[in-house]
Amino acid sequence: MKEYVLAIDQSTQGTKGLLFDKKGQLVSRYDVPHRQIIVNSNWVEHSPEEIYKNTLTAVQMTVEKAGIDKNDIICAGISNQRETAMVWDRITGKPPYNAIVWQCSRAEEICRSISVQGQSSLIKESTGLPISPYFSAAKIKWILDNVEKAKDLAKEKRLCIGNMDSWLVYKLTGGKYHRTDYSNASRTQLFNIFKQNWDNEVCNIFGIDESCLPEVCESNSLFGSTDFDGYLDKEIPIQAVLGDSHGALFGQGCLKSGMAKATYGTGSSVMMNTGESPYISTNGLVTSIGWKMNGVINYVLEGNINYAGAVIRWLKEDLQLIQSAKETEALAALADKNDTTYLVPAFSGLGAPYWNSRAKAVLCGMTRSTGKAEIIKAAEECIAYQIADIVNAMNEDTALTVNELKADGGPTSDKYLMQFQSDILDIDVSIPDTEELSGMGVAFAAGIASGIYDEKNIFGSVERKSFSPSMKEDKRRELYNGWKSAVSMVNK
Fold first, then answer.
1. Structural domains in the chain?
2. Which of 240, 278, 356, 419 sits CB 3.0–4.6 Å from 446 for a disulfide?
3. What is the pLDDT of residues 333-363, one digit of tens each?
4. Residue 488 burial by CB count (10 A; 0-12/13-18/19+): exposed, middle or buried?
5. Confidence band (pLDDT; 50, 70, 90) for 109?
6. Is residue 267 classed as helix, strand or coil in its secondary structure?
7. pLDDT class for 433, splitting at 50, 70, 90?
8. What is the DSSP letter of 412?
9. Rounded Cα distance, 169 and 93, in Å
10. Of the candidates 212, 179, 215, 209, which has an alpha carbon nearest to the alpha carbon of residue 197?
11. What is the dihedral of CA 269, 276, 449, 168, to 10 degrees?
């Protein structure tokens, strides 16, 4: 009997349907992009209704493209863009406002006010997260402060609050369930990651009624069943939910303490599994929950940067230096290796480990011979430098050492970037033969929970290639010191 696992990877740029066979191999994929609603230079929104419609389309087209019997699909899993926050009417299912995207910094003043009141330490001690407009809580407070319909729904106890995962669970189950998992809950800045429950005191600081928040379930729980609005002949269980970075960590097989991965997407998440023991960072990283499965919790240290693949898009769409992202590898390789140009891509502030939302981007160190190729080289390398900052902080924060970085995401196809990443970290960078680690991770989790996959064997089905460091130590130190000097220009 043929058996398949369906994964929905709802990301910042679009929604993917992914179909995996009994051996864990990807057999079909279909992508549906959605609008990036730019309200002003710092406000970014998504339409929840558009994303739900696209989810149904992605699922249908993935299955049709595979040409399989729909009845052979055993279960589904959802991975999602995290911290993108929204609210909706519990009864009608209608959102009174768009989802506010993780990149959006509109809640900066809210965070500043909370810090001035001296409450940021309490929040971090409970949630593991520094006060920042990056996380969901301040975005939700902004909606409650500024959207009258949302205020009214909250007063009537009809308001549902959640990230994109709980919205999709709600919609796909016909409004039966308002649920999230431990990984997504830990990124809201409302969840006590040590007591493992919604923190009433923190919720009160943000003016959020705890009853509006979703039920928190283990990451491989049964979240409900769906037929995708009648597309399938019978309902199948939604058997796993993971935030996209957590899904990638699981898909990379980083199941043991000290293992780490970097996801290269629009932004980037660098995450280290620290096992059942949480580490509190003194170097600008955050402590979160990787997942909770079968009663066992895995904590993580994580650093997030806002601009990874988005830097390449900036080269293409705004500067028009390239026509395709595929051009960057060759152009960076042609650039003068001794050029001293650095790009610090703080277009919407600096993420980890600096957490400076007021920082502005800078291109510095140029000479008269700096040209197009050198600027592209600087853009490529700034991605690797930012990730190196986080890995170095992880090594300092823990008794653990990252000996290999597992990498995933579209930019990992760029050989120049991956080799430079290995060189600047002085460790191997290992890349799987598929880009779809977030979706694969949640598919593996759902398939293991459903008995389709054997956890001991399934991760061995992934083939990998590696990049090893070849840069001399003095050159590595010189380049990295130059990067730190460039960052210091904007991190004031």
1. 4-243 (3.30.420.40)
2. 240
3. 999 999 999 999 999 889 889 988 889 999 9
4. exposed
5. very high
6. coil
7. confident
8. G
9. 12
10. 215
11. -40
The single residue listed with the structure tokens 């599994």 is: 273
CA distances from 96 to 12, 91, 99, 347 (A): 20, 13, 10, 29
Q: pLDDT tier at 39 (50, 70, 90 boundaries)?
A: confident
pLDDT in tens, 249-286: 999 999 999 999 998 888 888 999 999 989 988 898 99
- What's the N-to-C CA distance of the chain in angstroms? 61
Bridge partners, residue 88, by sequence: 160
In angstroms, the CA 298 to CA 125 distance is 18
Q: Exposed, middle or buried, 294 (CB in 10 Å: 0-12/13-18/19+)?
A: exposed
φ, ψ at 54 (rounded to 5°): -65, -30
* 422 token code pair: 């290995």
Structure tokens at 400: 């653990």
Task: Name the pTM for this structure.
Answer: 0.89
**Those residues with Cβ within 8 angstroms of residue 238's Cβ, 6 or more apart along the chain or in another chain:** 75, 76, 77, 78, 169, 172, 173, 222, 223, 224, 225, 226, 446
Amino acid (1-letter code) at residue 301: L
In whole angstroms, what is the distance from residue 324 CA to residue 398 CA? 40
For residues 390-409, one letter each, b for 16 or more C-beta atoms within 10 angstroms of the residue's C-beta and e for the rest, the string is bbbbbbebbebebebbbbbb
Q: What burial letters (b/e) apply to 108-136, b meaning 16+ CB within 10 Å?
A: bebbbebeeeebbeebbebbbbbbbbbbb
Instruction: Return the bridge partners of 271, or none.
Output: 261, 302
